[in-house]
């Protein structure tokens, strides 16, 4: 009985090891396969719209088979790129990517900067930021980088003062002066436009503003400056996939004169080419 048990255990162990190696080999083969379509996860607006323009008008001539998967949150695109469910993503900024990699242990890298979506402060109750009343509630994105951007926007326009050097890691705890005694409601970035009926003002990411039919250049009380702005939106892949010929083709198309014109014509200043 003991000998039989030992032999059986050994056979099972060898079988499991063989299966494990086969699985690893399959993952490696899948990761290195560049024969299929390039699958890119993207926020619907403007990222997927830009990608679909490339797909419909430019990709075939360039020999690129492009598949666009729309995703409405800021987590799934990176986790899907990390686990290989998609080949690339297009939705985020460099500071957000760096923070995500640090916190999640992922290995996503930038390929090319494509555009800037200026962050803006919007309100259904006042026409000027200076008109916000004492004790007004302002909604801000609750993820680290975008909350920091939101507070930097408010500080740049004199509504609050922040500790020196906090950058995009700023939180309400870093506010040193708050003359209007503003209160902050931290929400998922995608929900900030919908909060405008419940708060006095909201800081909204450019892509979500466009989805909500807000026109940043016209409707924002204050708007991020494009000058020296580190928050360009980028095409990203898992580390090691940068040399995928399909990725290189897409990067070239996304920074082409045709895409620049598409962005300028369609978004009228709400999205700015960064190339």
Automatic annotation (TrEMBL):
Membrane topology: Lipid-anchor
Keyword Nucleotide-binding: no
Main location class: membrane
Keywords, sorted A to Z: Lipoprotein, Membrane, Palmitate, Signal
Lipidation (S-diacylglycerol cysteine): 24
Endpoints of the signal sequence: 1-23
InterPro entries: Lipoprotein_NlpA
Superkingdom: Bacteria
Gene Ontology terms: cellular component: membrane
Compartments in which it is found: Membrane
Pfam families: Lipoprotein_9
Family under the similarity heading: Belongs to the nlpA lipoprotein family.
Name this protein carries in UniProt: Lipoprotein
Organism encoding this protein: Streptomyces mutabilis
Taxonomic lineage: Bacteria, Bacillati, Actinomycetota, Actinomycetes, Kitasatosporales
């Amino acid at each position: 009985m003991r000998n039989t048990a030992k032999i059986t255990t050994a056979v099972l162990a060898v079988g499991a090891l063989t299966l494990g190696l086969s699985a690893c080999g399959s993952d490696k083969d899948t990761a290195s396969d560049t024969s299929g379509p390039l699958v890119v996860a993207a926020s619907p607006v403007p990222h997927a719209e830009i990608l679909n323009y490339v797909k419909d008008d430019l990709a075939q001539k360039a020999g690129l088979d492009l598949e666009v998967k729309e995703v409405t949150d800021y987590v799934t695109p990176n986790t899907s790129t990390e686990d290989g469910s998609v080949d690339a993503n297009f939705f985020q900024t460099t500071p957000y990517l760096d923070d995500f990699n640090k916190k999640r242990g992922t290995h996503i890298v930038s390929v090319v900067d494509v555009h800037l979506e200026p962050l803006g402060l919007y309100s259904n109750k006042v026409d000027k930021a200076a008109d916000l009343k004492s004790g007004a509630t302002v909604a801000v994105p609750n993820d680290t980088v975008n909350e920091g951007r939101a507070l930097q926007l408010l500080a740049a326009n004199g509504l609050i003062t922040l500790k020196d050097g906090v950058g995009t890691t700023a939180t309400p705890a870093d506010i040193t002066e708050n003359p209007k005694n503003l209160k902050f409601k931290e929400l998922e970035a995608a929900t900030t436009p919908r909060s405008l009926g419940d708060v006095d003002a909201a800081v909204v990411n450019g892509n979500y503003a466009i989805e909500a039919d807000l026109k940043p250049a016209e409707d924002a009380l204050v708007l991020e400056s494009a000058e020296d702005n580190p928050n360009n939106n980028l095409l990203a892949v898992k580390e090691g996939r940068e040399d995928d010929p399909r990725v290189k083709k897409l990067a070239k198309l996304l920074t082409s004169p045709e895409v620049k014109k598409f962005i300028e014509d369609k978004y009228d200043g709400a999205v700015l080419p960064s190339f």
